[in-house]
Every structure is written in structure tokens, then in C-alpha cells.
Specification:
Thioester_dehydratase-like, DNA-binding protein, five-stranded antiparallel beta sheet, DNA binding
Length: 138
């Protein structure tokens, strides 16, 4: 990059508040405390995302909340260039526990992302709601 070219900006943009339901309230309460929860099914033993009462893998309602370190790798991503706040990236992170999470990437310039890059969860404030999980490079 030459001295006259600007370095790509780090991606940040306002995120609207999520809808909090009876089913998702424990997740959002934990997020407000800086903890990332996923659901694990006691019947099949697998973790799943988005956290919900019924396991999408086997149909069991024997699911429990589990705290996750919130670490994984970028499976895929796409940079959105047409935005009033500048470019930002959305994509999927495959958590170390197995599930894939659709997310925003922060604290990294668009050209700094790579498939397979290790990332970790971070909570970003929203507009009048609980913080949401986003991912940043490890």
C-alpha cells in the first residue's frame, strides 16, 4: 500500500436491538453479563445454534444451556460495500463445539479476514437492547 492510499477502516456499524423472547431470554441475560451461551441436546449430545428448546438435529426437547468460550474459525464471509457506515462483513463462524453461527465481524479491516482464521466472540452494544455477539480475530 502506498503512502497516499488510505488504510481500510475497521468495520463498525450500529446494530438494532434483537427481539427477546421467553425462549431466548436466558441467552440475552447471559450476553448482558458478557457470557456466550449455546444449547446442547442431552439426547443426541450435540450442540446447536440458534439456541432453542427443541434440538434441530434430533427433535428432542431435552436441551440445556451451556457456556461456550465463543471461539472458532471463519467458515465463510462476505463484505458489504454499499452501506452508509462503510464496508462491513457478515459470515459464518464454526464454533469449536461444532455449530455454525451467522455473525458480524469487527475490529478488522475487510481485507484482513481469511477463511479459516481463528476468531472469538465479543459483545457489541445495540440500540436500546442487550448486546449481541460479534466476532473478532484472536
Amino acid at each position: 500500500m502506498s503512502e497516499t492510499q488510505e488504510k481500510p477502516a475497521l468495520m463498525t456499524r450500529p446494530i438494532p436491538a434483537p427481539a427477546v423472547t421467553v425462549e431466548s431470554k436466558p441467552f440475552w441475560d447471559a450476553a448482558a453479563e458478557g457470557r456466550f451461551l449455546i444449547k446442547r441436546c442431552n439426547a443426541c449430545g450435540k450442540a446447536h445454534w440458534y439456541p432453542r428448546t427443541i434440538c434441530p438435529l434430533c427433535g428432542s426437547d431435552d436441551t440445556v444451556w451451556q457456556e461456550s468460550p465463543g471461539e472458532g474459525v471463519i467458515y465463510t464471509y462476505s463484505v458489504m460495500h454499499r452501506s452508509p457506515t462503510g464496508p462491513y462483513a457478515l459470515g459464518y463462524v464454526t464454533l469449536d463445539e461444532g455449530p455454525a453461527v451467522m455473525t458480524n465481524f469487527v475490529d478488522v479491516a475487510p481485507d484482513g479476514l481469511k477463511i479459516g482464521m481463528r476468531v472469538k466472540v465479543k459483545f457489541q452494544p445495540t440500540e436500546n437492547g442487550p448486546p449481541v455477539p460479534v466476532f473478532t480475530p484472536v
